[in-house]
Amino acid sequence: MAAFFNALDAGLSPVVGPQVDAPDLAGHFFTLTGGSSGPPKVIRRSAASWGHSIKVLGERLGLGPDARVGVLGDLTYSLSLYAAVEALCCGAHLHFLPRAGLNARGITHLYATPTQLRLIRQTAPDVTHVISGGGPFDPATAAHVATVLPNARVWRFYGAAETSFVTLADSYTPANAVGAPFPGVEIEIRDPQGQPCQTGAEGLVWLRSPMVFTEYASGQSDSTRVENGWITVGEIGRLGRNGFLFLTGRQDRILTIADTSVSLDQLETGLITAGATAAAVLPVPDPLRGYILHGFVEGSVPCPPALKTLTSLPELPRLASGKPDYRALERLLP
């Protein structure tokens, strides 16, 4: 791995094939959470926890010596680092590149967040697979990707730095679902008393998986709980009859405003669906209503009734992970 990162620092595109000895799967490594609403947390996970998904996706995506994998994000964050390690383990060519470099490098497989995909302006017909997660992938994003990456099959996933992959979705996934359980993952929806919910009922999303992290090495999350081999990161959702997962949003971003539950995540998704390239919604405490909501967008979209203000910016402040920097946006609140 040291040689891998040294090669990246030198601007090279290292290739590791199956003839190279596999790393010690009993070992551990460290990576960062997204850090949208606070300092990124350092998580510790085993090499084996990624080995499972590398095997599954490597076969499904056809990763091998003919594949050229492009990574748009910062390698300090888990999605970009995972994509790089997966490419090397499968013997593919790895390119850490700007958005404008897709054609110059002949990229065939692209790992990117939905926000990063919405910022691509150059058509790249060589891209055959897109693997995307870390934010809402709405119909407008899908239409944009179909235009700029016309030959790409899109694989959407839901997951977290702590859980790795939870679900996987493609063009056959029902609208608004984040996908079916990733191979090897069990999902259970539980009520506030910790009991399993009936199919279709909303509750806290719990899962059991060979891909979960080991522990937080630095920082903690009140939303993350581990019980008897099951883990939750605080997402609220429901399971459909065919096992597809539908998400409402993170529990800590569902607020009571004027006696009504409001999901900030769903409001952001609505702004993106309306045409914003990126969106963020921030709450400000209010003694009468509970909270007043302010929104920020890239682009020009109407202000929905749920927001008191909607500010259009040339570019939203972002973290290295590509997610909105909520702490920076707090300094812009009216």
Automatic annotation (TrEMBL):
One Pfam family in the UniProt entry: AMP-binding
GO biological process: fatty acid metabolic process
Keywords, sorted A to Z: Ligase
Keyword Cell inner membrane annotated: no
Highest taxon listed in the record's lineage: Bacteria
Family: Belongs to the ATP-dependent AMP-binding enzyme family.
Protein name in the entry: AMP-dependent synthetase/ligase domain-containing protein
